[in-house]
Structure formats: structure tokens, C-alpha cells
Amino acid sequence: MKKITTYDPESKSQDLIHENIEKLKSLFPEIVSEGEIDFEVLKEILGEEVIEEDEYYKFTWAGKAQARREANKPSTGTLRPDKDESVNWDKTQNLYIEGDNLEVLKLMQKTYAGKVKMIYIDPPYNTGSDFVYKDNYKDNLKNYQELTGQVDDEGRKMTTNTESRGRYHSNWLNMMYPRLRLARNLLSDDSVIFMSIDDHEIENLKKISNEIFGENNLIGMFSIRSTPNARDYGHIGKMHEYCLFYSKKHNLTETYHLPDFNKKFKYADDLGKFNIHPLYNSNEAFNIENRPNLYYPFFIYLGEEKDTNGFFKIGLESKENSIEIYPPLSNENGIQFVWRWGKDKSLKNLNKEIVGYKTSENEYRIVQKMRTSKKVIRSIFDKKSVSSRRGTAEVEKLFKRKIFSFPKPLNLILDFLKASTINNDIVLDFFSGSGTTAHAVMALNAEDGGNRRHIQVQLPEPTDEKSEAYKSGYKTLTEIGKERIRRAGNQILDDLHKQIEKKQNELDKLKKKGDDEDKIESLTIDINEIKERKDKLDTGFKVFKLDSSNIKAWSASTENLKENLLSQVENIKADRDKEDVLYEVLIKFGIDLTSPILKKESGQNLIYAVGYGALFICLDSKIPVDVAQTIGEWKKELEPYSSKVVFKDTGLDDVTKTNAIQILKQYGIDQIRSI
């Protein structure tokens, strides 16, 4: 039975350096010499791909090497559950994590790598007065514990990053760089990340993002009219800020169109309203050289009767009094365009979704009927609903007072969510602030019936003692964020309830009249659909808080040696309970923190079954061999694909360990650990 200790790699967060080294060894086995990597051999293999000149394009700053190393350094911390501050603990799939996001992102690596579909962050803009995370490259967990008190080890306040302190931009870059590297690991291959920023660091954020995500994965940059009226001071009235939009892998990226409520249609047929758009592909990257199967002729039949909209009938075969039509050449470079559809698809849609059209310049075109009332997300946001003032008002409405300054507006995040997520996607915000992202996820799920999950991470930064928030009893930003999510969830549920009541009243009136059966049926369907969305809406969240490991670290000091030895007999810290240890085990094994957890008593002992039997845990101080038998029978009942078992090491003597292992093996369980 292998023991999980503070020295065991499994007792730490994911060791990215070790994993990357193993990948290199697997790809290039010839670079391994006596278990180590021979870098000179690797350079020979890579050949011309290695840059050795002194002068080449790169972006660097004071502390970059340390920041890169920090991203790969594992965390020895853990996340402790807080049920009292959570909502709907047993059923929710959402997480709210309090702690320094650098350490939290490290702890998330095993469990959530490659699973997050969308990240949105609104990091500190480095204006000089906003909070800047101080990273101590020796011990970030200790540093976090100092930060939560808002003083360093010499008692200095740490709430600003003014230009007068030196390394102004470098400090900000050293804060952002490792966090973005870790965040990229969590993204799925088809995912995206949105990053809000203003003039202070837009160039630097773009440069490090190009390095981390790749220039080819920059989808675009949004300009957001955050201030409806210009601030008339200085030399320019600032009205906007930015949001960078990157993908994980551009060729696999999935995005979705947004509703266009102002869409107007010029034409209509039996299937509904539509506009028209040329069928040829106007992107020069797709041309006759690389898409020859998309270059073929259509024929417009001038001799046949036009349809009710004045469009010509078309076909793929020549007829008397017909015109042959090919895609045009590009105006800029004379490249031969091709069609967007192949022959088979065109044949199925002739004179239904594609028709012939004569332009005002008397040119003939093949056009597609465009029936959608949606559009691609636009690069400019100039609606009043995306202003900072609107975001402030939304929070003020929930709290009945001005509790948070300039939170991101709901509609901005809603548009980002609609453009990048569907159904069961996971959404992460590791600069959570007031909790707008969580609010938006719940609102969108309520609107379209989705099951998107959100993960919020926020440092419990103290509020200003002079602020309205502090006077109202909110001592940290996390207290505001959690309360905002609670209130927003209740508000959304209340709104759905009001929608049901309104439609039910309409339905009751129609039933009394006894007519309009179609309207009665339509309203009944609407009511049932809203009820279904309301019943399944997840407005809860599990709260976890960053802390040091629950397992005592061994002290090699010769002082107080007797006390050190005795303390290791009970290797779990005295102020930690079973569930603290339970969730640390989940983190170490890479199991989702929202996994269902069942409990079963075996005599005086308590057994946990995580993920319907993927993991069984017993953390009692005295564990008889009967517990192993109970676990085996429970595994047989739950029928998991495979199972692991974790016992508290000091809970079993040597004989019990041996017998327990043999019993569990009879039930097909051979992955047995102790902690």
C-alpha cells in the first residue's frame, strides 16, 4: 500500500516541468543519456528550427525567466470546502474559489486540464491604484497568506503599483504571465479566452498573449464603449477600452452567431423571410488551385418564368436561352474565386435556397437565400448596455446601494458567452471581482435552457474601510462576489416564476372563453418549457478556500526531534476535518470537485464513494478489515469502470493493511493508497 506524503509527486499539484520532460523523452528517445536530457543532441535533431543568433525578435522584461519557471512550479497547497458559505452544496456544479489565482490555477491543472470551453478575465489594468498581486517566487502560498492580511512580512501595505516604484510594467507582466500560461492548459482545443484591458497594458497583454497562445490564434480585438460620455480632461476624451479574443487552436475553434434583433428582410417565400448573398467564396485563401471541386458552372434560364421575387430559375445543365455563370475573379489580385457549395449540395437546393439574380449593373449572379436572424459577433460594442455605468447600476439594483465600482456589465459577458459556449460547457473567470461572469452564466442558462458551469476564482482582498461595501458589512471582495451570485440567482428564479404566472393568467382567460385552441396549445407549451428551465437551473455554488496542505510536512530539524517524531504518528493537521482531507485527495487524483459523493457507515466507520465508486475513501483513526469488505461489496453494487481506495495510514496496523489489500483485490481493486 503506497503512502501519499508531502514528498510524493501525487501530493502536489501537477508537475508541468516533469510532464514536459517526459514528453520530450518520448518524442526524441535519442536525447536521453543516463536518464537525463542531452541538450546538444536535441539541438542537432531540431537543426534549423533552433535560434542561436544574438539578434532576433523577442519580447522580454525584468523577471520573465522567473515568471516562466513559476508557471511550472507545483503547488503544495490545497482547497478547503466551506459548506456554510455555499449554496445548494449537494447538487450544484459551480465553484467559487477564494485564493490567489496563481496557486488555484496550479491546483486545477490535474482536474480541469483541457476541459474549459471559455475563459473571461478582467484583470487589474495597472492604473497605479488598482490591486496588483505580489508574487514571491520562493513561497507563493506563504505570500498569499500575507496578502490576505494585506501586509507583507515587514508590515508594508501592498495595494498599489505606482510608476514611481520602478519596474512598473514588469511587475504587471510578472503577475500576468504565469497565470495565462496555466490558464491555457485548462482550455479545451476548441475553446477561446476573452481578456478585458485598457490603454495602460494593452500592448503588453497582446505581446505576452501572442507568445502564450500564438499569434495565429488571435481572433481579434474588441473596442468597447465603456463610458457613454467622454471624460474631458487631458488631451483626449477617453470613451472606450479593449478586450482581446484568442483561441486555443484556431483551426478547431467553435464560435456561434448572436441574435440580431434589428434584422430586416427584403424578400419572402413559402418558407419565410430572407435576404440574399452571393454564393461564391470571397476569401482568396480558397481558390481554384486548392479547391478545384468548387469551381464549376451554373446556368441561369432566362427563357423560363421568374419566381414571385423576380429571381431567375437556375440549373447545372445548359438549356436554350441560358447563361453560363462561374465565380468571379478577385478585384485585388485577380485570384479565381470558387463556390461555397459543392455540386451535390447545390443540386439539392436549386431554385429553393439558391437562385439567379440580376444586379443593378446588369450582371448575373448566383445567390443564396439567407434566412438567419443571427450575426457574427462584432468588433465594436457601442451599446449603452455595455457601459461601466450599466454594470454599476446592475449591482446597485441587487444590493439596493452602490456596493462595487465599475463592474463589467451583464450584457457584455452575455454576448461573449453566446458567441463561445453551448449546453454543458465550463466557463472560468479567475479575476472574478463582483461575480458578473457567474451572473451571466446563470442568466443565459435561464434563457436558453443550457447547463453551462461556472468556476470563479477571486483573492479575498479587503474592501476599503471608508467604502459603502465595508460599512454594509462586506469586508472582502469575495464576500461581495458570493452575495451577488446568491442574489442574482434568486432574482433570475423570481423572474422565471413571474413569466410563468403571466402566461398562466393569459391561458386561464383563454380557457374561460373556450376559443383559440392554437393559442391555448402554444401557451401551454411555453409554460411547460419555462418550468423545465426553472427546475433545472443551477443557481448554487460550492465554496473552497486556498490553504496549506492538510498533511503535515516533515521537519528535518534536529531541534525538538522527539516532538517531530510523535507528531508524525498523526500526520493530519489537528485543525482539519475529514472533508478537508477528502477534497485534497480529489485534487491529487484529478477528480472534479463537484463529483457526487455518497456516504455509507460500516460499524463505527464512515466510507465515502466519490463519482459513484471511482474512488472510495475511509479516513477514520481505527479501520478494521471489515471496511475493506464493505467497500468491495459497495463497488460491486455501483459497478464503476475502475476504482481506487484511499485509507488514513495511521488507521490501519500492518496486519489489517495486508488483509485489506487481499480482500480488495478479490473485488478487482488493486489501486490502494494511504494518506
Write the layout of secondary structure elements.
Layout: E1 2-3, H1 16-27, E2 32-33, E3 36-37, H2 39-46, H3 64-72, E4 77-87, E5 95-98, H4 101-112, E6 116-121, H5 140-147, H6 168-186, E7 187-197, H7 202-213, E8 218-224, E9 241-247, E10 258-259, E11 267-269, E12 272-278, E13 280-281, E14 298-301, E15 313-315, E16 322-325, E17 338-339, H8 343-349, E18 354-358, E19 364-370, E20 374-375, E21 380-381, H9 388-399, H10 410-420, E22 426-429, H11 436-448, E23 453-458, H12 468-471, H13 477-513, H14 517-536, E24 541-548, H15 561-567, H16 578-589, E25 597-602, E26 605-610, E27 615-618, H17 626-638, E28 644-647, H18 654-666, E29 671-674
Parallel strand pairs: 1-29, 5-23, 5-24, 6-7, 6-22, 8-21, 22-23, 27-28, 28-29
Antiparallel strand pairs: 2-3, 4-24, 7-9, 8-9, 10-20, 11-12, 12-19, 13-17, 14-15, 14-16, 18-19, 25-26, 26-27
Helix pairs in contact: 3-6, 4-6, 6-7, 10-11, 11-13, 13-14, 17-18
Q: What would you say about this model in short?
A:
The protein is α/β, with parallel strands linked by helices. Helix content is 34%, strand content 20%. Among the domains are: 267-372, no CATH class; 549-674, no CATH class.
Word description of this protein:
It is a single chain. This protein is α/β, with parallel strands linked by helices. Among the domains are: 267-372, no CATH class; 549-674, no CATH class. It is built from 18 helices and 29 strands. It has a ten-stranded mixed sheet, with helices on both faces. Strand 2 (32-33) and strand 3 (36-37) form a beta hairpin. The protein is globular and about 95 Å long.
